[in-house]
Design brief:
Blueprint: H1 5-8, H2 13-26, H3 28-68, H4 75-122, H5 128-173, H6 178-211, H7 217-226, H8 231-257, H9 264-299, H10 306-313, E1 315-316, E2 319-320, H11 325-328
Helix pairs in contact: 2-9, 3-4, 3-8, 3-9, 4-5, 4-6, 4-9, 4-10, 5-6, 6-7, 6-8, 6-9, 8-9
């Protein structure tokens, strides 16, 4: 993060990757500690969830098939019914624990990385203990922003589902034509593009929630304005990150979860590889979303006062003080 603020706006996809990589390498000691304490547990929770989910799914499916071939009213039928009910109860409990832990570690990891990059940007003294002392004080802001984004995505998915289902029903009732199929694919592509756009807004809003005095829907609104002009770059970057996550997910499913024919040693080896790759991907993604924030600020000529940002990153009287809008939206500079 040794570039001048005016230069940040000219960073493209490769430039953002390079700037993020340089920050991680230059401060690898503190990022290693953040990874060990927050990102590795997050990756472990994500991958273990896939394995345990598969175990529950196989057991429940097997018992339900057994139940279908068992006469109702018999002792075996009643026993299988109780077993399935208990398995579903344990499964739902497991899902609740997974969602809670994944949610908490995601927010904490985001807060830690965003705060660290901001400290690097302002060239202030940075220690792991200071990062960890600030993180618990900002994760509530991130939680509100996440819930607002989740609500927006829920509404978006509901509306999209109604529109797509309505079109499919109209095609089924009427005569199916090439035009109708083409419209369906246009709707589907538009839906996926909108979903990616909301993902970009969510990621940028998370950074805004940590570094500025707004969060929730206000942070989302701020992100919508910030991303203008850099939307294509951000969407390509996050699309590639999500595709990378999908590849790791698929590899773990194929080689570990459903790889019983590969042998235990190979499955463990592939699990470790997926675990390390996922941890690196999460760290890289969190650093990238923070760098994109500074690129967007520079693109809109909102010159951030490093001393003001540094002051607001300080832990004052035990409370985290976010950067206020007047400090982030200083006088515009001209290039």
């Amino acid at each position: 993060m040794d570039r001048e603020q005016e230069e940040m706006q000219f960073l493209g996809i490769f430039g953002i990757y390079l700037e993020s990589y340089k920050a991680i390498i230059a401060w690898r000691k503190i990022f290693s500690k953040i990874t060990l304490s927050l990102i590795l547990p997050l990756s472990f929770i994500y991958l273990v969830h896939m394995e345990v989910y598969n175990l529950f799914n196989r057991k429940i499916s097997h018992n339900e098939r057994e139940l279908e071939h068992t006469r109702s009213g018999t002792a075996k039928y009643e026993k299988l019914t109780d077993v399935i009910s208990n398995e579903w109860a344990y499964f739902l409990l497991f899902k609740a624990v997974y969602i809670t832990l994944h949610f908490i570690f995601s927010l904490l990891s985001t807060a830690a990385v965003v705060y660290t990059i901001a400290c690097i940007y302002t060239a202030r003294e940075l220690t792991f203990s200071k990062v960890m002392s600030v993180v618990p004080k900002v994760w509530k802001r991130l939680m509100v922003t996440f819930l607002c984004t989740f609500f927006a995505m829920f509404l978006y998915n509901m509306v999209a589902a109604v529109v797509i289902v309505f079109w499919l029903v109209s095609m089924a009732v009427g005569s199916r034509s090439d035009f109708g199929v083409a419209v369906f694919y246009v709707l589907l592509i538009s839906y996926l593009a909108g979903l990616l756009y909301l993902t970009v807004i969510w990621q940028l809003a998370s950074v805004v929630s940590v570094l500025e005095d707004v969060y929730g829907f206000q942070a989302m609104s701020k992100s919508i304005n910030l991303i203008k002009g850099k939307l294509l770059v951000a969407m390509v970057i996050f699309l590639k990150l999500n595709l990378s996550l999908g590849i790791i997910h698929f590899a773990f499913q194929k080689l570990v979860v459903h790889g019983s024919n590969l042998g235990m040693v190979n499955r463990v080896a592939f699990a470790i590889i997926c675990f390390l790759l996922l941890s690196k991907l999460i760290l890289f993604g969190l650093v990238i979303q923070t760098v994109i924030y500074f690129v967007c600020k520079s693109y809109h000529h909102e010159n951030i006062d490093k001393s003001a940002l540094s002051d607001h990153l300080e832990v004052y009287l035990g409370e985290y003080v976010p950067l206020k809008a007047k400090d982030v939206q200083l006088e515009q500079y001209h290039v």
